[in-house]
Structure formats: C-alpha cells, structure tokens
Amino acid sequence: MTKIVTKDIEPNRRRGGDLRTLLSPATAGTTSGFMGVLTLEPGEVVTEHYHPYSEEFLYLVRGEITARIDGEPVPLAAGEALHLRINVRHRLENDGTEPAFLVFQLGPLAPRPELGHVDTEPLPHQESV
C-alpha cells in the first residue's frame, strides 16, 4: 500500500493548470495506469493533447469547465464525469469565475512515459508574447 498526500507532490504546469500525478509508477509502483488531480483557476487551460496508449477518465469535483473534444465544446459541471478514448484530442478550459478541481485516471500505461502524451498546440510557456 502507498499513501500519497497531494500537497507533497510538486505541480506539473507544463500544459497549464496545477496538475499533480499522485499514484504512478514513480510514486507508488503502479503497473496499469496512473491518477491525479488538476486545479484550473479561472482563465486557465490545459493545452490540447492526446494519449496514444491510454484512455482518460475525468471527474469534475468542483467548478465548471469546457472540455474541447476534437475541437467540439463539451461543458462539464461538478459531479459529472467524462471518458476520453485513446487518440482523442482534448483541451480543458476554465472560462468560469471559480477554480475547478478535477480527478483524473489514465490506463493502460504507455510503454515509456515520454510516449504517453502528444501535444497538438503550443504549450503555455512556448507561446510567443
């Protein structure tokens, strides 16, 4: 058994938002997938990407977001869940006035971590000003 405390995990802000992978091969020795949490402040996004090996399951605990699935808007409210199939492009946007808090899970694992995500738009820190 492995217990992970959210505040002890450094946030990954590479694609936007405050994403913390809690249970993974690196943190808990998982072998079939990983899970974590995401906080999106008003105006924040997670840039568009897809997973060539994994399905993704999202559960919106608090707030409201728009998920853009292959470019089409899908509104989500607290208490709603979304299943993203392998190879489906998705982007998450908080265009509301309150922070949004989500739990996510992906599985199965990609053969190597660097193969798990394919970015399809510039990352926030790479956009020119």
Q: What's the SSE blueprint?
A:
Blueprint: E1 18-23, H1 25-28, E2 34-40, E3 45-50, E4 55-62, E5 64-69, E6 72-77, E7 81-84, E8 90-93, E9 100-107, E10 118-119
Antiparallel strand pairs: 1-2, 2-9, 3-8, 3-10, 4-7, 4-9, 5-6, 5-8
Report on this model:
- It is built from one helix and ten strands, in the order βαβββββββββ.
- By secondary structure, it is mainly β.
- The model has no long low-confidence stretch (mean pLDDT 93).
Summarize the model shown.
By secondary structure, the protein is mainly beta. It has one helix at residues 25-28, and strands at 18-23, 34-40, 45-50, 55-62, 64-69, 72-77, 81-84, 90-93, 100-107, 118-119.
Shape: globular
The helicity comes to under 10%
Beta-strand portion reads 35-45%
| Topology as a string of helices (H) and strands (E) | EHEEEEEEEEE
The number of helices is: 1
Distance between the termini: 46 Å
Secondary structural class: mainly beta
> Largest sheet, order of strands side by side?
1-2-9-4-7
State the low-pLDDT regions, or none: none
Overall mean confidence score, pLDDT = 93
Instruction: Specify the biggest β-sheet.
Output: 5 strands, antiparallel
The number of distinct β-strands equals 10
